[in-house]
Amino acid sequence: MVLPFLHSVPEAMAAAKKGEKPDKKLVIMYIPNGIVRRCFFPGEEEEALPGFIGGFNADKTKNQKRKQNKPGIYPLELTSTMQPLADHIEDVTLITGLDRTFKNGQDVHAQGASCYLTSLSPVQAAEQGIKHPNGRSLDQVIGDKLGHKTVLNTLEISCNGFRAPKEPIEFDNISWYGPNKIAPSIRNPRKLYDRLFSKDNFRAHVADVSDLVLADAKSLSRKLSADDRATMDEFMTMVRNVEVRMAKLEKLLANADIKVPKTDVLPRGEYIRLQADLMLLAFQMGITNICTFMVGPERWEASLRYEGVFDNPVNHHTMTHNQKGKGYLELAKIDLFHMQQYAYMIKRMKEIRESDGSTMLDNSLITYGAALGDGATHQYFDLPMIVAGKGQGQIKQGRFIKMTSGTLNSNLWLTLANLMGLEMKSYADSTDVVSDLWT
């Protein structure tokens, strides 16, 4: 097992003397089915509730009265949905005014998820002669340039606990190796653990991988500085904690009511945080620096258990279509729940120290957004977007950036590629970078 970066081993000491910075990390976190925008965007609490627009008719949203942004940089005020970020307000920036072009007549949810990191549908790209339509997505393009430093160029994670397919695979993936070649996301924490920490299914022969390294870890610990011993202890605790939590989840599944699909009763929060912890271990150990992280699958007509939120499993997608009256308040509880998981990830990254004493968050960029501005209208405009992390001092945080309404979200993807060190002048249908993000 690869250990976290320890300052007192010779390689670490040499790197520190050279002034080398830790690798940058990129997480693209995806939330499904849009959001309750009046609870998400500042100043919209009293806006009218949207009516449901079904089918493939996303073009009907063109005729809706759109709230036009007054471009500029404003103080960040946390809305009800963003309250979990109160302890991290200096670490995040909210961006509004982003749109994605779409092709009417193609499934809005499939197009939303599968085109999230390509910014164009396959038909649009073919019409415009653009090279990577649902081809090499942003994370893979960045991985091509930076992945040589790590074991895996990229890592794809989904927090979709359903084993039986309820939708086509495009609804549960946002990463693409190439045209019609999905980079399949890993849903099962056990399979993710094996992917990261096992070789040739070694896991099948060793009941607890942390036991295998415990003796060596203790021996190494005696040779480390006090600070590194603390890092080592924290790391081993994380590994052991992951083992314990996976065993707990397996027990929950084993005891589930046979009449209900076993994965339906998986507690969402614990599941999402476990997947996040495994990702952070992969970052800490240098296995990868780039990850797509789907909080849930797009649409996926099935009920999920949101522990501490609802007494019984609920269908997120169906709820997005029933926002009238007090319905939006119930739906907003899921948005708040998802934001809590984002806040957890930020908190953990602030706690993890890297080789130069900085935090993992200092060296990272973590986006949080959806492919639909609202689940009821299926609108592709005013997409929600939050960017966390400092990108090694390249981003000034704690702000609210209002883009000119209609700014393409591919501009943000191009900006992220540039912030990660790629010299790119365009991406998909981009027209410029989001210059206000840079310090």
Task: List the SSEs and their pairings.
Layout: H1 10-18, E1 25-30, H2 37-40, E2 72-75, E3 92-99, H3 108-114, H4 122-128, H5 138-146, E4 155-158, E5 176-178, E6 181-182, H6 189-197, H7 209-221, H8 226-254, H9 268-284, E7 290-294, H10 316-320, H11 327-351, E8 364-369, E9 383-388, E10 399-408, H12 409-419
Parallel strand pairs: 1-7, 1-8, 3-10, 4-7
Antiparallel strand pairs: 2-10, 3-9, 5-6, 8-9
Helix pairs in contact: 6-9, 7-8, 8-9, 9-11
Structure overview:
- There is one protein chain.
- The protein has 439 residues and is α/β, with parallel strands linked by helices.
- It has a single domain, classed as Alkaline Phosphatase, subunit A (3-Layer(aba) Sandwich), CATH 3.40.720.10.
- It is built from 12 helices and 10 strands.
- The longest helix has 29 residues.
Low-confidence runs (pLDDT<50, min 5 residues)?
A: 199-209, 256-265
Question: Please, how many helices?
Answer: 12
Q: What is the number of strand segments?
A: 10
The 3D shape can be described as globular
User: Largest sheet, described in full?
Assistant: 8 strands, mixed
Overall pLDDT score: 83
What is the CATH topology descriptor?
A: Alkaline Phosphatase, subunit A
Element order: H for helix, E for strand: HEHEEHHHEEEHHHHEHHEEEH
Annotated CATH architecture: 3-Layer(aba) Sandwich
